[in-house]
Amino acid sequence: MGPTEAGDEACGPCWDIDVDFSCQRCTYPGDIYADGCCTRCVASDRVRDLLSGENGQLVPQLVPLADALLAAASPRSVINWLSRSGGQLLVSLAAGQAEITHDLLDDLPQDHDTRAVRNLLVTTRVLPVRDEFLARLEIWLRQTLEPLPSHRLRIIHPFAEWSIVRDARRKSSRGRYFESSATRDRGKIRTAIEFMTWLDTNDLPLSDLTQATLDLWLVTASPTRRKAISAFIRWTNARRLTRQLEVPTRLRAQPTVFHDDAEHHVQLVRCLTDQDLPLDVRIAGAFVRLYALPVTRIVHLTTDCFKRDQEGAYITFGKEPVLLPPTLARLIEQQIANPVTRSMLKPAPGSGPAFLFPGPVAHQPRRPHGLASQLLELGLPTLAAHNTAMITMAADLPPIVTSDLFGIHVNTAMEWAVLAQDSWAGYLAALRAAK
Question: Could you tell me which of 60, 66, 94, 318 has the fewest CB atoms within 10 Å of its CB?
Answer without folding.
Answer: 60
